[in-house]
Amino acid sequence: xxxxxxAPLSPDLSRQLEALGGQLVWRIGKDExxxxxxxxxxxxxxxxxxxHLPRLRSAGDxxxxxxxxxxxxxxxxxx
Length: 79
Fold this sequence. Notes:
The chain is α+β, with helices and mostly antiparallel strands and 79 residues long. The protein has helices at 11-21, 47-50, 61-70, and strands spanning 24-31, 37-43, 56-57, 73-77. This is DUF3248 domain-containing protein.
């Protein structure tokens, strides 16, 4: 978020986060029924289940940022 300062990550934590990031898949888009921006997140093993979820419309960077600032960003974990 703009204006926020974060402490530097330790090398060990940085490696762990990098390893976790390599195991995740995600989709970002606008919900068909609302103006919410949805982030679907899950392990790579859950990737086939993403295909069975309702479609998301395209959302640009500005729309994602505005949704985050206005509380319309929804994060959903996919098992």
